[in-house]
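Exercise: predict the fold of this chain.
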Amino acid sequence: MNDTFPAPASSITIFRELISELDPHQLSDIQKIDLCAVAEETIEGLCHGLMFISEAFVNGNQYPHESLEQVGAFLSAAAHLFPALRVLSEYSPIAH
């Protein structure tokens, strides 16, 4: 018997789908504003992290293994957050 199972979706796809299933109509304006504020703060943090990585490459800085693990965790978090932030940015009551 040859059982085949579909490949599991990536965690990024699953996370994006979960976020996209949020119903903005069930959120109050305050909740939407809070989500947008969190998204903005997260984007700013991601930009700072990317600038740190960029400067490290440009300046040829070398970091200990622990720092590289933190950079890896940052990049993984960024890969999950970018799609979610895109979805959340559409909830802004100001944008509609």
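Check your answer against the key: Residues 28-89 form one domain.
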